[in-house]
Automatic annotation (TrEMBL):
Keywords: ATP-binding, Nucleotide-binding, Transport. Belongs to the ABC transporter superfamily. The keyword NAD does not apply. One of its GO terms (molecular function) is ATP binding. SUPFAM superfamilies: P-loop containing nucleoside triphosphate hydrolases. Gene3D superfamilies: P-loop containing nucleotide triphosphate hydrolases. It comes from Myxococcus xanthus (strain DK1622). Residues 8-240 form the ABC transporter domain. It holds the Pfam family ABC_tran. The keyword Plastid does not apply. The lineage of its organism: Bacteria, Pseudomonadati, Myxococcota, Myxococcia, Myxococcales. This is ABC transporter, ATP-binding protein.
Length: 307
């Protein structure tokens, strides 16, 4: 078993914003502790005002914490060598409208201290679906195209850590699928993904771990399957003509919809044994999905309990 350095590790993180000529301040983070394992796809979720953006700016060295310690990729987020290994897509992306996409990526490459290779940057633009727009000025891009360019910029230099704040904002459903594939490919390559998104369905599809932030603190954290209650229940739909009595005998419970049943199975082997019994009874399965509490319900329940 290897002792990997966490990609992100914060302890006792506090941040208070003080207003000029006023006593006191606004405490955005209140003793936050969080560890993001290396190579994980990690999602940060929470209500508006929970402190998510402040946390992201803190781990990037944009905001200085009032108290606490931060380690990113084994070092300080203010170390230029560490920053060069991070890809960042901010929530509010400001791009030079008179530039072209290749010129923008070339500047990002130089800022990271890397040699500019136009062919590499063109492949990046092709990867995010902008190969047909390389000659156009960025000012003429749609919001979705600008988000794609921001993602390409985050991918410059094959970063070890990707920090993405609302990466699919303004992108159509087909584009979201493309972005999701890119992020999954990066995680398979070994990149650590840290995602902040209001689109909880996207977080569920991409991330394997989630932290819920409320009131400036992490109130719940863990693997998605552990956070979602009811993970051992499966919804199964059989084709018309299935023998209901035989299915009940095989351990299936009739659901509300026509042809729908529920079965409990602790692991894939137990699930397959139940399905084998159904097939032996002549039933033909046409749909199978886990009956777990979705991330939205987990978020709402956790925030209400914390309040």
């Amino acid at each position: 078993m290897t002792n990997q350095e966490p990609a992100i590790e914060v302890r006792g993180l506090r941040k208070t914003y003080h207003r000029a000529f006023r006593k006191g301040g606004t405490e955005a983070l209140r003793g936050m502790d969080l560890t993001v394992p290396e190579g994980s796809a990690f999602g940060l979720i929470g209500p508006n005002g929970a402190g998510k953006t402040t946390f992201i700016k803190s781990i990037l060295g944009i905001v200085q914490p009032t108290e606490g310690s931060i380690r990113v990729l084994g070092g300080s987020p203010e170390d230029p060598r560490i920053r060069a290994r991070i890809g960042y897509l901010p929530e509010r992306l400001h791009l030079p409208g008179t530039w072209t996409a290749p010129a923008f990526l070339a500047t990002v490459t130089r800022l990271k201290g890397l040699p500019v290779d136009p062919a590499v940057n063109l492949r990046l633009l092709e990867r995010v679906g902008l190969s047909d727009a390389v000659g156009r000025r960025i000012g003429g891009y749609s919001k979705g195209m600008r988000q794609r360019l921001g993602l390409a910029a985050a991918l410059v230099g094959t970063p070890s850590l990707l920090v993405l704040d609302e990466p699919t904002d303004g992108i159509d459903p087909m584009g979201r699928m493309e972005v999701r594939r890119i992020l999954q490919d990066e995680v398979q390559r070994g990149t650590t993904l840290f995602l902040n998104s209001h689109l909880l369905a996207e977080t569920e599809r991409v991330c394997d771990r989630v932290a819920i932030l409320a009131g400036g603190r992490v109130v719940r954290e863990g693997r998605l399957e552990d956070l979602a209650r009811g993970g051992v229940r499966w919804l199964v739909r059989f084709a018309p003509g299935a023998n209901a009595e035989a299915l009940v005998t095989a351990g299936f419970v009739r659901g509300v919809a026509e042809g729908q049943y529920v079965v409990e199975a602790e692991d894939p082997a137990a699930l397959n044994r139940a399905l084998d019994r159904a097939r032996a009874a002549g039933a033909l399965m046409v749909e199978l999905r886990r009956d777990g509490t979705d991330l939205e319900s987990v978020l709402m329940g956790t925030v209400e309990a914390a309040a």
